[in-house]
Amino acid sequence: MEDFAPVRTQRTFELISDRIREQLRAGALRPGDKLPAERELARQFGTSRNAVREALRSLEHGGVIELQKGARGGAFITEGDPGAVSQSMQDLLHLGGLTLSNVAEARLAIEDAVVALVAARAAPADLDLLDANIDAAEALLREGDVEAKTELNMEFHNLLAECTGNPVLVLLMRTLMELLRSVNRPLTAEDTGDVIRRRRRFMGHLRARDAAAAQTEMRAHLDRVHDLFAAGQP
Amino acid sequence: MEDFAPVRTQRTFELISDRIREQLRAGALRPGDKLPAERELARQFGTSRNAVREALRSLEHGGVIELQKGARGGAFITEGDPGAVSQSMQDLLHLGGLTLSNVAEARLAIEDAVVALVAARAAPADLDLLDANIDAAEALLREGDVEAKTELNMEFHNLLAECTGNPVLVLLMRTLMELLRSVNRPLTAEDTGDVIRRRRRFMGHLRARDAAAAQTEMRAHLDRVHDLFAAGQP
DNA sequence: GCCAGCCTAATGGTTCTACCATTAAACCGT
DNA sequence: ACGGTTTAATGGTAGAACCATTAGGCTGGC
Asked: Distance from first CA to last CA of chain B, Å, rounded?
């Protein structure tokens, strides 16, 4: 006989955060909106302020809300925080579920798709932005500021993803690169001149709308970079 | 003059969760380990139990720990929960940062890469698993259980990703499919027979290690499915 | 001897109260 | 009109008390 189901399994703060997520899906809450104050929410839900706070903590960690203190403070619905996805994958990596080469392989897949899309649909203005990035990197290299130049080189990939106009691809690119960066050692400077040359060739392929050639060029570059990363690992 | 930096910007519970994440990165904490009890943590950190609970709530939401109540209960380090990543992306979607076609396009990219890898490196046993999935789906179709058959068809893609042996790709595939599923309408049954035929052809290409042909077959299928999804949207 | 039932201790879950720190806006004296 | 002060609202922290669940030990009757 199984006549009786458990009276209650969910925890109070989960009920609260679920209610708020509901209103999000329903469109009743939109980015920029402000939730009632903690004390007021506690009153409305008929719970303690503590339970409300734990629910808010959960939503905050998920990048759904931002909390501001002081008068006129409160919990505000955000535009959505890609960093939350990144954080989760970082945790997964550190918990040992993922390896560096797993991440590198996935990154290769994303980059491949991005390059194909950019070759097919990027506007000339977008390509100019990419050129500007390479110019800036070259200038920094001449000045000997390897650190800043490396930063710009990573930004190149993010720019590339943004040229697709697809925020999902941007998100995935940022996340995977962040993961790779979190375990890398600072790259040595010896090979930096080569990167600039490769980038120039790559842009030539893009402007010619030659997706296959651009992919080949990028692949060669990434294989090399990922090898360097792997060498830095034990 | 900027002689004085803010005395404290981070909140107490953030300091606590950061400390725990530190120990994770350092390897001092491993999956399966149990954290001290809340009261004990509060004592060690010299804070209130409340702050500890909010830190644990944050870690729990991130899939880093699981909480069990009762005697011998406590906070246990998990193996890593891919669901946390999914949840974050779901939130992002609902916050309006992403569109259905964005997700579909990214999914296409991942699937393309997965197919190429599977064609290149899948073991015969893996391919047999895929065949078994198709057989089961066909059987369900004959019985008229469209619901269960659709479920199996989605599982096919997850199996495919698992054949790559890369958990990152598995994670991305699961997440993106989950996202697509969360906004789809139940597909109509009229086209289901066609899917089985396509799958059989696809497997033929895989066994022949013909990545290009397999990709073409899968692309055609996904383009169609995504169109159906889009049609279900306003 | 054994076993069902009870009891106890440990732990997370919840509530309540009090107070602090920060912030913006209202207020007031000059 | 200006500038400083006060006030009120809000999130952040602390501490205590109690509840619900769970594991394990205890006990008494068979």
From this structure: 57
